[in-house]
Amino acid sequence: MDVYIKSSDGELEHFYKALVDEDMRLHFNPSEAATYVLVYVPLEEVVIDEEIAVNRGTSYRITPTFVPENATNRNVIFYSSDTYIFTIDSNGYIEPIIAGEATLRMNIVEEAIEKEILIIVNNIPEEIILQTDSVRLQEGQNRVIAVEVIPADAVGRELIWVSSDEDIVTVDENGRITAHKIGSAEIGVRTSFEPAIYRTIKVEVIARQVPATPTGGSGSGGASNVAAPTFINGIMIVNRQFGLPRNFSPGVNAQALTAFNRMRDSAARQGLTLRIVSGFRSYETQRAIWDRNVRERGEAEASRWIARPGHSEHQTGLAFDINSTSSAFANTPEGRWLAANAHNYGFIIRYPAGTEHITGFAHEPWHIRYVGHPTSVTIFERGVTLEEFLGLH
Question: By the 8 A CB rule, do 297 and 274 touch?
Fold first, then answer.
């Protein structure tokens, strides 16, 4: 320990390194023969932050400030209020265990001084999950890649995006990839937290393709002359622009139906009833629906609500109409719950209010489309349509 020593003539000497035995007797070897008296410098205050944040996977040392700085007693004892969250050793080193909050108590031996510090243990990024690790885009197209940082409450979740060749493809701070010219490049994404986690996405840019345009008038309902469904980055897209072959007839998608059943059961536990009133429809069924609506409403009004045959999402087996096909469904308890929770089960509200100029269809609060998780969460959180998410608008 360090102590002050002064001689019998009152002169204050420099620090002597003194030894204290078990009987608290002081031992030193003064350089001059004299009578020496121990001078005790009382501790007045200990200054330390009231709140300290530490990250899992790191070590942090508590460094209090003693006032005055030459105070004699600096014997500190540390306690953790919850050793499941963090531990602390006798030297003040904190070892974070799990994310959470607990109190650090700091006592000064033989002094009436005690401090409490809130210790916040943060999670750190452990993994980046990409919606896909390869993308094919047409010239001029753009696409936002869904990215999930694990765990969801980690600090430093902000992502940094770079392109290996910005002449071919660029990427903005939100992960929106834009294709510029034919070729191949890589998009890199990493966490802002260090040490960073790094992932790459291979991007192939192909020539711009002109999709088939539906034709025909009332009665025939038009015809789809495409040879195969259109996929953009692994997602089947069906709308006024992109159609399906006449003979495309997969039935109800099993994965989508399983997801709906999970969602239905969750709603039921809250006293709500969800049921499918329209699921898979064949090309021929859709043609009959189209023709009937054209006769009853006229083609212009029918086209706001009804897809032409070959251009209906119901033909994919991935779309369901829930409970009702009335706009009033949006204001029912089931309608409000569906709008707020469908994304948790892999679904999106396919035609949101105010997006008719993008989707081509009026608001249909009952029409859900399965896109899978976490894509559904990304679309919901960004408040975009499927067309916007796929870079089609």
Answer: no
200 vs 218: CA distance, rounded Å: 49
Q: What's the rounded Cα separation, in Å, for the pair 34 and 23?
A: 23
Active-site annotation, residues:
364
Q: What is the average per-residue pLDDT within 331-350?
A: 95
Question: Is pLDDT of 215 > 60?
Answer: no
Nearest to 342 by CA among 272, 259, 236: 259
At 108, list the tokens. 């000064």
Cα–chain center distance at 165: 27
CA gap 144, 163 in Å, rounded: 14
pLDDT, average across residues 130-159:
84
This prediction has a pTM of: 0.48
Q: Which of helix, strand or coil describes residue 338? A: helix
Angle at 225 between CA 220 and CA 226, to 5 degrees: 145
Hey, what long-range contacts does 211-217 have (CB within 8 A, 24 or more apart)?
Answer: 211/241, 211/242, 211/243, 212/243, 213/241, 214/240, 214/243, 214/308, 214/310, 214/311, 216/308, 217/299
**pLDDT mean over 3-21:** 46
> What CATH number should be reported for the domain whose range is 127-206?
2.60.40.1080
Q: Which two tokens stand for residue 13?
A: 């000497």
* d(C-alpha 214, C-alpha 224), whole Å: 6
- Tokens read off for 364: 């249909």
CB within 8 Å of 3: residues ≥ 6 apart: 15, 16, 18, 26, 38, 39, 72
Domain boundaries, the chain: 2-39, 45-122, 127-206, 230-389
Report how far residue 349's alpha carbon sits from residue 343's, in angstroms, rounded to the nearest whole number: 8
Answer for the pair 199, 193: CB distance below 8 angstroms, yes or no. Answer: no
Integer Cα distance of 221 and 321 in angstroms: 21
Q: Cα separation of 324 and 364, whole Å? A: 10
Q: CATH number for 230-389: choose from 3.30.1380.10, 3.30.360.10, 3.40.1170.60, 2.40.40.20.
A: 3.30.1380.10
Per residue in 77-120, pLDDT (tens digit) is: 999 999 999 999 989 999 999 989 999 999 988 788 889 999 99
pLDDT for 336 equals: 95
